[in-house]
Amino acid sequence: MSAQTQSTRTPTLAQVLECFEELWPASLAEGWDATGLVAGRPDQPVERIHFAVDPVQDVADEAVGAGAQLLVTHHPLLLRGVHSVAATGYKGRIVHTLIEGGCALLTAHTNADSAVGGVSDVLADILGLQDVVPLAPVRDGLPEEGLGRVGTLEQSMPLSEFAARVYGAVPAVAGGVRVAGDRDGIVHRVAVCGGAGDGLFDEVRAAAADVYVTADLRHHPASELREAARLTGGRPYLVEVSHFGSEWLWLPVAAQALDTLLAESGFDVEIAVSGQNTDPWDFVLTPGS
């Protein structure tokens, strides 16, 4: 194979970004979000890509150590404004680690949440939901796009059995899985939202879901939803998973989708998924522990 032919099989960062845009369009991101390219030269060749949930130091070290030229994270590093990326701060240190290691940083956050085949689609699929539609369809978008998903189980089951299914599906973290509701209550219609989802409670109720699977449930919204549920037979029940765990499930699927599209475009790129557990909690105390 000639050197010229070989070079055409390694995409530039700009060419990877074109494929990325096709899979997870930036237009699907929420207005408050910060997605897209954070660091990197568009003309830089990309031979290895690393996927992770969080752009933390351990992940940056892992990506650079693996020889990646691109780190793709779900969560943004610079979501809130900063005035310095000096290596005296942790965000600056991460930026320096990546740039000095020749590794670009790309974020797919709420655009990856809303896209077809995105975070909530993957969660719904893993839990065995059928006839899935968005909880909150995007404005002026396709019917399949939007935040959260709702669908039905092939067979109804008790809440305790469904919660066990969720527990077995998500990565193991210190916080485990928390459940609110009658353990013997039968569930059939299920709503899900990867990441923090208590902003979609109205949509969950409107969808007549028996149970809602999401993360980062704050006390007051969850308490108010449970109190209101007393008037509707106790539903929707709640199953709370870790923010990290609910979104990590998307990584292998996303990596495969990007790999497939790059290959169809004639490019040969090595793609890996981080094994780092970046859930912030290390242990939990419960009654009897």
Automatic annotation (TrEMBL):
Highest taxon of the lineage: Bacteria
Matching entries from InterPro entries are given as:
DUF34/NIF3, DUF34/NIF3_sf
UniProt keyword Transmembrane helix present: no
What Pfam family does this protein match (any one)? DUF34_NIF3
Keywords, sorted A to Z: Metal-binding
Metal-binding in keyword set: yes
Family recorded in the similarity comment: Belongs to the GTP cyclohydrolase I type 2/NIF3 family.
Q: Which NCBIfam families match?
A: YbgI_SA1388
User: Which proteins does it associate with, and in what oligomeric form?
Assistant: Homohexamer.
In its UniProt entry, what is this protein called?
A: GTP cyclohydrolase 1 type 2 homolog
The record lists the organism as Citricoccus nitrophenolicus
